[in-house]
Specification:
There is one protein chain. 34% of the residues lie in helices and 22% in strands. It is α+β, with helices and mostly antiparallel strands and 522 residues long. It has three domains: 197 residues, no CATH class; 167 residues, Oxidoreductase, molybdopterin-binding domain (Sulfite Oxidase, Chain A, domain 2, Alpha-Beta Complex), CATH 3.90.420.10; 107 residues, Immunoglobulin-like, CATH 2.60.40. The strands form four sheets. Strands 2-1-10-5-6 form a five-stranded mixed β-sheet. Strands 3, 4, 7, 8 and 9 form a five-stranded antiparallel β-sheet that branches. The chain has a five-stranded mixed β-sheet with strand order 12-19-18-14-15, with no helix packed on it. The radius of gyration is 28 Å and the shape is globular. The protein starts with a helix and ends with a strand. Bound molecules: the ligand Nc1nc2c(c(=O)[nH]1)N[C@H]1C(S)=C(S)[C@@H](COP(=O)(O)O)O[C@H]1N2 and molybdenum atom. The site of the ligand Nc1nc2c(c(=O)[nH]1)N[C@H]1C(S)=C(S)[C@@H](COP(=O)(O)O)O[C@H]1N2 has 19 residues, from loops.
């Protein structure tokens, strides 16, 4: 016990602590100075994104499964612990061999600089905060280690070390380390707050007036909503729309600075500003988006009215060359999606969207511009904060998730869902309203059937169909007898194909199988 206590008071433990404080200073100074540079170059977030990039897929899956929507907080805790551990080692190494310590700090600085400058839309000048942070970290490490050399001879004091009283050295060390750590905390917090305050993007979005569409969306027919109470609204309000992305913090793009570059296998490179979009003939249409990660029965799907420019028009100006079969769309934060070229050119009205349900895109749904492509899962089509379209070939380029084990293409699979009653619900015997949602974007839904326990499949009441690219709701009045019951559901799409009962995981190209909910009737 006393041994441990003595060890904790000795140079090895204290130099490890010095390493942690120095690492905190590197990050805090970088973050504070970074507040005066572009918001998307914030070093902590950039480092977090790099961390995500290097997290093995199994660990990522584990994190999402374990922490759910808190996975981003878990990432920062994990990143903090990893950095702290490395910083401990760095401190001890620096104490024993200063030159190695310098190399260690420079390496840490290089990793942060690399994280920052490899983010899309970042200028080389954005490396400045990380460089200054690194220098500050070096100075702090040197200053903190100095008093330690006056302590016990461990392993042996350098020739220039002044022998001193260990207790005094320790006091000096803790005073310096404490003050520095507190200053780092204040600097980091200040940097975050300052960065947020300097962002006027949310205000600019509020002030933005969307133009009227040249071609309005067809009126939503009466009767699209399921007769069963509790089925989600046919149009998903923006604040209830599911959100899926790899962005640690929502990218903040000034619409006036936004520019889309269309290049690659094209006759003519095209550049588009936000004003160009506002001035163009925009269309409006209802489209249901769906995430490939949606499990059977899941709710990673939403339906909205989008306002935007058909991507077809942009491609017409760029004139893709023969042999091109894919468009790789990239967001400002480096996400990318591979979309078949012909899908962006056919009449399904894939668009560069600027409006969602009559408002400018919410920041987290891609402000100022995102892609909306009917019929494809979001991971291969719905690029938010899009800034780059490269006309290319599937054989030549891979998108973000394709490089991580997901498919390169992602047509949406036919899916039916029971929304009420909820799985494991208890309902009173008698008439029970059963209802839900089904989708097969671009093919449409022509039939939904349910099977209760082992009875025959019965066709349910379909709500009105608005279009082939939106979901379709359904309802059924069930005469429920007491006991435990299973309700299974399946849909038939517009080609006449019945939804497969073959169970598949979301990876690599979307879940399949029939949902079954258990309901207790009392
Ligand atoms: N920039 C960017 N765009 C992105 C993603 C992303 O991670 N980054 N995720 C995609 C995925 S997987 C889906 S399902 C949709 C979700 O769009 P939403 O968040 O607006 O619902 O966005 C797509 N666009
Ligand atoms: Mo997704």
């Amino acid at each position: 016990m006393t041994k441990l206590r003595n060890w904790l008071k000795g140079p090895p433990a204290l130099s490890a602590l010095a390493g942690v404080v120095a690492a905190a200073v590197v990050l805090a100074v970088a973050e504070l100075v970074g507040a005066f540079f572009t918001a998307r170059a914030a070093p902590l977030l950039a480092l977090g994104s790099t961390f995500i990039d290097f997290t093995p897929p199994w660990l990522k899956d584990f994190a999402i499964a374990t922490f759910g929507t808190n996975d981003k907080a878990a990432l920062f805790v994990g990143m903090g612990l990893t950095i702290a551990l490395l910083a401990c080692v760095l401190g001890v190494v620096a104490y024993r061999r200063w030159a190695l310590g310098v190399l260690g700090v420079l390496f840490m600085g290089a990793v942060i600089v690399a994280s920052v400058v490899t983010r899309a839309g970042v200028e080389p000048i954005d490396a400045v905060p990380s460089v200054l942070g690194t220098l500050a970290g070096l100075v702090v490490l040197r200053r903190l280690l100095a008093p330690l050399h006056g302590m016990k001879q461990w392993p042996e004091a350098p020739a220039d070390a002044a022998p001193g009283n260990p207790a005094t050295s320790r006091r000096r060390f803790f005073a310096a380390a404490g003050i520095t750590a507190a200053a780092a905390g204040i600097a980091a917090t200040g940097g975050r707050l300052l960065g947020a305050a300097r962002s006027n993007i949310a205000k600019a979005r509020e002030a933005l007036q969307l133009p009227a569409p040249a071609k309005a969306a067809p009126a939503v027919p009466a009767g699209v909503q399921s007769a069963a109470a509790g089925v989600p609204p046919w149009i998903t309000p923006n604040n209830e729309f599911y959100r899926i992305d790899t962005a640690l913090s929502v990218p903040e793009i000034n619409a006036e600075d936004w520019e889309l570059r269309v290049h690659g296998l094209v006759e003519e490179e095209v550049r588009l500003t936000f004003q160009d979009l506002l001035d163009a003939d925009l269309i409006e249409s209802h489209v249901t988006l769906t995430c490939v990660s949606n499990p059977v029965g899941g709710n990673l799907a939403g339906n909205a009215k989008w306002l935007g420019l058909p991507i077809r028009e942009v491609l017409r100006r760029a004139r893709p060359k023969d042999g091109a079969d894919m468009v790789l769309s990239t967001s400002i934060d480096g996400f990318s999606a591979s979309t078949p070229l012909e899908v962006l050119q056919d009449d399904r009205d894939a668009m560069l969207a600027i409006g969602m349900n009559g408002e400018p895109l919410p920041l987290e749904h891609g402000y100022p511009v995102r892609m909306v492509v009917p019929g494809l899962y979001g991971f291969v089509s719905a690029t938010k904060w899009v800034v780059d379209l490269e006309v290319t070939r599937f054989a030549d380029s891979k998108a973000y998730w394709t490089e991580r084990g997901w498919s390169e293409r992602g047509p949406i699979k036919t899916m039916a869902r029971v929304d009420v009653p909820k799985s494991f619900a208890k309902v009173p015997a008698g008439k029970v309203a059963v209802g839900g949602t089904a989708w097969a974007q671009t093919r449409g839904i022509t039939k939904v059937e349910i099977q209760i326990d082992n009875a025959d499949w019965v066709e349910v009441e379909l709500s009105t169909e608005a279009s082939l690219v939106t979901w379709r709701q359904w309802s059924y009045e069930w005469d429920a007898a007491p006991g435990a019951h299973y309700i299974k559901v399946r849909a038939t799409d517009g080609t006449g194909e019945v939804q497969t009962d073959q169970r598949a995981d979301p990876v690599p190209d979307g879940a399949s199988g029939w949902q079954s909910v258990m309901v207790t009737v009392e």
